[in-house]
Amino acid sequence: MAAGVQKDQRDTSFEHIVPRFYLRRFCDERGVLYVYGKSNAIRESIPERECAEYEFYEFDVRGARSENAIENFLRRIEEDAGQVIYLVSDRQNLSVKQSVVWASFVASLFARTRKVRAQISAATVRKMRELICSDDYVRELQHGLLQRGEIHDADTLRRYIESVQEGFEKSPSYFHATGIPKHTAVLAEALLRKSWFTIDAPVGHQFVTSDSPVITIQRNRHGWSEGAGFARENVVVMLPISAAKLFVASSKFLFKTETDELMVSAVNRSVVRFAHRNVYADSKSEILRNLVDRQINEVVFGTNAFLPSTSNSDETSTV
């Protein structure tokens, strides 16, 4: 086991949404994590107390139970990534297996969050309801079943569809949790097609992270915008991997190994805007506190970023 990696002793009912080993990389030398929330005083904490919720990935819908399946899936990714993160941080060459591990970790870190559940999944469920309530949808489903030799009247189909939809809406954990393995695989594949960089913050400056730590920035004719799909060629995916290091995946743009104060500020601003409830740092900063008060959660999934879609044109649209 690599130096500094601690094997988590897990209470499987109390599930960590952002892994503890990751948050430890943003603690100060005492192991303290500074927590920033909107209109709140800066508070001291430890990773074990943050980004955790009772049975967050568990569900029971119409007799289907999770039985810790999603938590176990994420745990396996975390255990492998806990070793690889040191290689990424030091810009070591990764094997194919290690690259898949790291891509899967970054992808899962996006897909597993409260923010995805509260914003993307909720918006997608609403969009699905609009779709399935339409007469065209019922007719197309009825026609498809008829081609298979099954005859169903429209009212019966509509009642069945609505009962399934009602189950989704009553259990957002089901809709979110069951999609995590699929979306992790799809997003990881998109990351593997990009070039990877590890960037050092200049001395005296630190990256921060959040409860929704993976950010995307897209280059367009107006400049840069936040919250586009991983697979797009002009999208840069970023993840702070410690207070001193930033992981970047990019198809079209090259990055130097050390950046300047302006880029650190720009990245931290995007981290705050992507954050859902909390931002985490290794020190106290009134500048950061003011930024959190003004801009936390300004990037709203399903509204101004990662817009829900029933198509497969954008991998992040149906998370």
Your description of this structure?
- This protein is an alpha+beta fold and 319 residues long.
- The protein has a domain at 26-48 and 67-122 and 170-302 and 314-318.
- The protein is 42% helix and 16% strand.
- A hairpin with a 2-residue loop joins strand 5 (60-61) and strand 6.
What features would you highlight for this structure?
319 residues; alpha+beta; 5-stranded antiparallel sheet; 4-stranded antiparallel sheet; 9 helices; disordered N terminus; disordered C terminus
Lay out the secondary structure.
Layout: E1 14-16, H1 20-23, E2 33-37, E3 43-45, E4 52-54, E5 60-61, E6 64-65, H2 69-89, H3 96-111, H4 114-132, H5 135-147, H6 154-170, H7 172-192, E7 195-200, E8 209-210, E9 215-220, E10 223-226, E11 235-240, E12 245-250, H8 261-274, E13 278-281, H9 286-295
Antiparallel strand pairs: 1-4, 2-3, 2-13, 5-6, 7-12, 8-13, 9-10, 9-11, 11-12
Short description:
This protein has 319 residues and is an alpha+beta fold.
Strand ordering within the main sheet: 7-12-11-9-10
Element order, helices and strands? Answer: EHEEEEEHHHHHHEEEEEEHEH
- Basic shape: globular
User: Whole-number average pLDDT?
Assistant: 86
